[in-house]
Protein backbone atom coordinates (compact mmCIF):
# COMPACT_ATOMS: atom_id res chain seq x y z
CA UNK A 1 0.00 0.00 0.00
CA UNK A 2 1.16 3.52 -0.76
CA UNK A 3 0.72 4.66 2.83
CA UNK A 4 3.11 1.94 3.95
CA UNK A 5 5.90 3.02 1.62
CA UNK A 6 8.90 4.67 3.16
CA UNK A 7 9.29 8.30 2.13
CA UNK A 8 12.71 9.76 1.51
CA UNK A 9 13.75 13.38 0.98
CA UNK A 10 16.75 14.05 -1.26
CA UNK A 11 18.33 17.47 -1.68
CA UNK A 12 19.63 17.90 -5.22
CA UNK A 13 21.95 20.81 -6.09
CA UNK A 14 22.11 22.02 -9.71
CA UNK A 15 25.35 23.88 -10.53
CA UNK A 16 26.89 25.51 -13.57
CA UNK A 17 27.61 28.86 -15.14
CA UNK A 18 24.84 31.41 -15.51
CA UNK A 19 22.98 30.94 -18.78
CA UNK A 20 23.66 27.23 -19.36
CA UNK A 21 19.96 26.41 -18.93
CA UNK A 22 19.72 25.12 -15.35
CA UNK A 23 16.38 26.79 -14.66
CA UNK A 24 15.01 25.78 -18.08
CA UNK A 25 15.89 22.14 -17.37
CA UNK A 26 14.03 22.33 -14.08
CA UNK A 27 11.05 23.98 -15.77
CA UNK A 28 10.78 20.98 -18.09
CA UNK A 29 10.62 18.50 -15.22
CA UNK A 30 6.88 17.60 -15.20
CA UNK A 31 4.50 17.79 -12.25
CA UNK A 32 7.04 19.55 -10.09
CA UNK A 33 6.20 22.28 -7.61
CA UNK A 34 8.29 25.41 -7.39
CA UNK A 35 9.08 27.35 -4.27
CA UNK A 36 10.65 30.72 -4.90
CA UNK A 37 13.05 31.65 -2.14
CA UNK A 38 14.70 34.70 -3.54
CA UNK A 39 15.65 37.82 -1.66
CA UNK A 40 14.00 39.23 1.44
CA UNK A 41 14.33 42.89 2.40
CA UNK A 42 14.17 43.39 6.16
CA UNK A 43 14.07 46.58 8.20
CA UNK A 44 16.66 46.01 10.90
CA UNK A 45 17.56 48.78 13.35
CA UNK A 46 16.25 51.39 10.96
CA UNK A 47 18.26 50.10 8.00
CA UNK A 48 17.22 47.99 5.05
CA UNK A 49 19.01 44.64 4.85
CA UNK A 50 18.89 42.25 1.89
CA UNK A 51 18.89 38.60 3.00
CA UNK A 52 18.62 35.37 0.95
CA UNK A 53 15.22 34.00 1.92
CA UNK A 54 16.38 30.36 2.00
CA UNK A 55 17.77 31.13 5.45
CA UNK A 56 14.29 32.17 6.59
CA UNK A 57 12.29 28.96 5.99
CA UNK A 58 9.67 29.72 8.62
CA UNK A 59 8.30 32.86 6.98
CA UNK A 60 5.32 31.38 5.16
CA UNK A 61 4.19 34.82 3.97
CA UNK A 62 7.26 34.98 1.79
CA UNK A 63 6.78 31.55 0.27
CA UNK A 64 5.48 31.49 -3.30
CA UNK A 65 4.48 28.26 -4.97
CA UNK A 66 3.39 27.41 -8.41
CA UNK A 67 3.15 24.34 -10.59
CA UNK A 68 5.65 24.24 -13.38
CA UNK A 69 4.06 24.22 -16.82
CA UNK A 70 5.99 22.47 -19.55
CA UNK A 71 6.84 25.65 -21.40
CA UNK A 72 10.19 26.92 -22.62
CA UNK A 73 11.09 30.60 -22.72
CA UNK A 74 13.09 31.63 -25.77
CA UNK A 75 14.24 34.73 -23.90
CA UNK A 76 16.83 34.00 -21.23
CA UNK A 77 16.37 35.88 -17.98
CA UNK A 78 18.69 35.32 -15.03
CA UNK A 79 16.83 34.22 -11.92
CA UNK A 80 17.19 36.27 -8.76
CA UNK A 81 17.88 34.67 -5.40
CA UNK A 82 17.69 30.89 -4.93
CA UNK A 83 14.84 28.62 -5.97
CA UNK A 84 13.95 24.99 -5.46
CA UNK A 85 11.27 22.70 -6.78
CA UNK A 86 9.91 19.50 -5.31
CA UNK A 87 9.10 16.39 -7.29
CA UNK A 88 7.91 12.99 -6.07
CA UNK A 89 9.21 9.89 -7.82
CA UNK A 90 8.84 6.18 -7.09
CA UNK A 91 12.13 4.29 -6.88
CA UNK A 92 12.05 0.59 -6.01
CA UNK A 93 8.72 0.96 -4.20
CA UNK A 94 9.93 3.97 -2.22
CA UNK A 95 8.35 7.39 -2.53
CA UNK A 96 11.21 9.82 -2.97
CA UNK A 97 10.77 13.58 -2.77
CA UNK A 98 13.42 15.42 -4.75
CA UNK A 99 14.12 18.93 -3.47
CA UNK A 100 15.97 20.39 -6.44
CA UNK A 101 17.88 23.61 -5.78
CA UNK A 102 18.78 26.10 -8.48
CA UNK A 103 21.59 28.62 -8.01
CA UNK A 104 19.21 31.15 -9.55
CA UNK A 105 21.77 33.52 -10.99
CA UNK A 106 23.70 34.01 -7.77
CA UNK A 107 26.73 32.24 -9.27
CA UNK A 108 27.40 35.45 -11.21
CA UNK A 109 28.06 37.25 -7.94
CA UNK A 110 29.92 34.39 -6.20
CA UNK A 111 27.33 34.72 -3.44
CA UNK A 112 26.39 31.08 -2.92
CA UNK A 113 26.86 30.25 0.74
CA UNK A 114 27.25 27.18 2.89
CA UNK A 115 23.50 27.21 3.62
CA UNK A 116 22.81 26.57 -0.08
CA UNK A 117 24.98 23.43 -0.13
CA UNK A 118 24.28 22.16 3.39
CA UNK A 119 22.66 18.71 3.52
CA UNK A 120 22.98 18.03 -0.22
CA UNK A 121 22.52 14.38 -1.19
CA UNK A 122 23.70 14.71 -4.80
CA UNK A 123 24.76 17.23 -7.41
CA UNK A 124 23.95 17.89 -11.07
CA UNK A 125 26.62 19.79 -13.01
CA UNK A 126 25.39 21.55 -16.16
CA UNK A 127 27.25 23.13 -19.07
CA UNK A 128 26.28 24.46 -22.50
CA UNK A 129 27.70 22.31 -25.32
CA UNK A 130 27.89 25.48 -27.45
CA UNK A 131 29.97 27.48 -24.96
CA UNK A 132 33.42 26.07 -24.24
CA UNK A 133 33.91 28.41 -21.29
CA UNK A 134 31.05 26.74 -19.40
CA UNK A 135 32.71 23.35 -19.90
CA UNK A 136 36.11 24.64 -18.80
CA UNK A 137 34.54 25.91 -15.57
CA UNK A 138 33.22 22.47 -14.55
CA UNK A 139 36.31 21.71 -12.47
CA UNK A 140 35.69 24.87 -10.49
CA UNK A 141 32.05 23.96 -9.84
CA UNK A 142 32.93 20.37 -8.93
CA UNK A 143 35.58 21.50 -6.44
CA UNK A 144 33.38 24.30 -5.11
CA UNK A 145 30.64 21.83 -4.30
CA UNK A 146 32.97 19.43 -2.49
CA UNK A 147 34.55 22.28 -0.52
CA UNK A 148 31.25 23.83 0.53
CA UNK A 149 29.15 20.69 1.05
CA UNK A 150 31.99 18.71 2.70
CA UNK A 151 30.49 15.25 2.04
CA UNK A 152 31.81 12.45 4.24
CA UNK A 153 32.76 10.35 1.20
CA UNK A 154 33.74 12.83 -1.55
CA UNK A 155 35.22 10.21 -3.90
CA UNK A 156 31.92 8.34 -4.11
CA UNK A 157 29.53 11.28 -3.81
CA UNK A 158 26.74 11.15 -6.45
CA UNK A 159 27.29 13.52 -9.38
CA UNK A 160 25.99 13.56 -12.93
CA UNK A 161 26.97 15.85 -15.79
CA UNK A 162 24.48 17.37 -18.23
CA UNK A 163 25.50 18.85 -21.58
CA UNK A 164 22.57 21.12 -22.40
CA UNK A 165 21.32 23.00 -25.50
CA UNK A 166 22.17 20.26 -27.99
CA UNK A 167 19.28 21.53 -30.14
CA UNK A 168 20.79 24.97 -30.82
CA UNK A 169 20.89 25.57 -34.59
CA UNK A 170 20.70 21.85 -35.19
CA UNK A 171 23.98 21.31 -33.38
CA UNK A 172 25.97 23.46 -35.82
CA UNK A 173 27.27 25.74 -33.04
CA UNK A 174 28.52 22.94 -30.85
CA UNK A 175 31.94 23.63 -29.28
CA UNK A 176 32.35 20.66 -26.89
CA UNK A 177 32.22 17.10 -28.23
CA UNK A 178 30.49 14.27 -26.43
CA UNK A 179 33.83 12.43 -26.40
CA UNK A 180 35.51 15.28 -24.52
CA UNK A 181 32.67 15.47 -22.02
CA UNK A 182 32.83 11.73 -21.34
CA UNK A 183 36.60 11.95 -20.86
CA UNK A 184 36.03 14.62 -18.21
CA UNK A 185 33.45 12.38 -16.50
CA UNK A 186 35.90 9.47 -16.51
CA UNK A 187 38.51 11.67 -14.81
CA UNK A 188 36.04 12.35 -12.00
CA UNK A 189 35.26 8.72 -11.23
CA UNK A 190 33.01 7.83 -14.18
CA UNK A 191 30.26 10.37 -13.54
CA UNK A 192 27.17 9.53 -15.66
CA UNK A 193 26.75 11.90 -18.62
CA UNK A 194 23.57 13.06 -20.35
CA UNK A 195 23.03 15.36 -23.32
CA UNK A 196 19.79 17.30 -23.08
CA UNK A 197 17.63 19.89 -24.72
CA UNK A 198 15.48 21.84 -22.27
CA UNK A 199 13.75 23.45 -25.25
CA UNK A 200 12.71 20.12 -26.77
CA UNK A 201 12.40 18.30 -23.42
CA UNK A 202 14.95 15.70 -24.52
CA UNK A 203 16.53 13.38 -21.92
CA UNK A 204 15.59 15.62 -18.98
CA UNK A 205 13.52 13.07 -17.05
CA UNK A 206 16.15 10.37 -17.59
CA UNK A 207 18.89 12.54 -16.11
CA UNK A 208 16.91 13.48 -12.99
CA UNK A 209 15.84 9.88 -12.41
CA UNK A 210 19.47 8.75 -12.68
CA UNK A 211 20.71 11.19 -10.04
CA UNK A 212 17.85 10.19 -7.73
CA UNK A 213 18.79 6.51 -8.02
CA UNK A 214 22.48 7.28 -7.45
CA UNK A 215 21.64 9.29 -4.33
CA UNK A 216 19.47 6.47 -2.99
CA UNK A 217 22.24 3.93 -3.58
CA UNK A 218 24.78 6.20 -1.90
CA UNK A 219 22.48 6.70 1.08
CA UNK A 220 22.00 2.94 1.37
CA UNK A 221 25.77 2.34 1.25
CA UNK A 222 26.35 5.00 3.90
CA UNK A 223 23.88 3.25 6.21
CA UNK A 224 25.57 -0.13 5.88
From TrEMBL:
This is Uncharacterized protein. It comes from Eleusine coracana subsp. coracana. Signal peptide: none annotated. The chain crosses the membrane at residues 36-56. SUPFAM superfamilies: P-loop containing nucleoside triphosphate hydrolases. Belongs to the small GTPase superfamily. Rab family. PANTHER family: OS05G0536900 PROTEIN (PTHR47981:SF7), RAB FAMILY (PTHR47981). It is found in: Endomembrane system. GO terms for biological process: protein transport. Keywords: GTP-binding, Lipoprotein, Membrane, Nucleotide-binding, Prenylation, Protein transport, Transmembrane, Transmembrane helix, Transport. GO terms for molecular function: GTP binding; GTPase activity.
Amino acid sequence: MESARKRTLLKVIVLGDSGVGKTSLMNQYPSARWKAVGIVILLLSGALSVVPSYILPCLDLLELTRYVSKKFSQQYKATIGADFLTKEVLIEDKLVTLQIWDTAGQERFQSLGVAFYRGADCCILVYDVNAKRTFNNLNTWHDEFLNQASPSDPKNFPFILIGNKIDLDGGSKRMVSEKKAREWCASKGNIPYFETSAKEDHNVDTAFLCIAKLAMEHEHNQDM
